[in-house]
Amino acid sequence: MQTRNISNACLNRLPVYLSFLKNLPKGEYPCISATSIAKALDLGEVQVRKDLSAACGSGRPKTGYDTDVLISSLESYLKYNRKDKVIIVGAGKLGKALLDYDGFEAVGLNVIAAFDNDPAVYGRTEHGIAIKPITQIKSFCAENGIKIGIIAVPDVFAQEVCDRMVESGISAIMNFAPVHLRAGDNVCIKNENIAANLALISKSVN
């Protein structure tokens, strides 16, 4: 099942299903149906059924999925049970907030270092994560096999940081800078524009 190709839209929904399942009252739902999940999350039943089938296979008639097995299957499909090493570039307010975030480990990510060009921030965080000079990225990534990076710098520096990451062997980047980045086709870039997302949310406010 791990080799099946699914759409990005489906991939974005799978963590939502997983979070819902893991927050169910323990022991109260030994089995759960796609219908129940769809109703709880206000999603289409057919869509949920197709998503789960693509990632985890079909549930049993009438009883649906064994909840624990479904959780395990989703975690495995999303590779949450694999600890990938991650670096952050940018140790300003946003970068430090990300360094303090304790939710990465739950999704299979281990932030092991941050980089910045300001000597005043070099050292270690309260959690023991090292903040190093930005010039050390390439050697650090080579020594530690880093493939995932997070960009948390102002937009004027984002492309330069992206280039450094790619040159260092990083092939998956989460970008928090509000700018379009250019990289090769073999590099996956996920943009997270906080301000733009808040602006979209504000449109729904009367």
Description:
This protein is of the alpha/beta class. 41% of the residues lie in helices and 17% in strands. The protein contains eight helices and nine strands. The protein has helices at 8-22, 34-41, 45-56, 67-77, 93-100, 137-144, 155-167, 194-202; strands at 31-32, 65-66, 84-89, 109-116, 123-124, 130-133, 148-151, 172-175, 188-191. β7, α7 and β8 (172-175) form a beta-alpha-beta unit. α1 (8-22) crosses α4 and α2 packs across α3 (45-56). The radius of gyration is 20 Å and the shape is elongated. The mean pLDDT is 90.
List keywords for this structure.
206 residues; alpha/beta; Arc Repressor Mutant, subunit A; Rossmann fold; 7-stranded mixed β-sheet; two-stranded antiparallel sheet; 8 helices; 41% helix; elongated
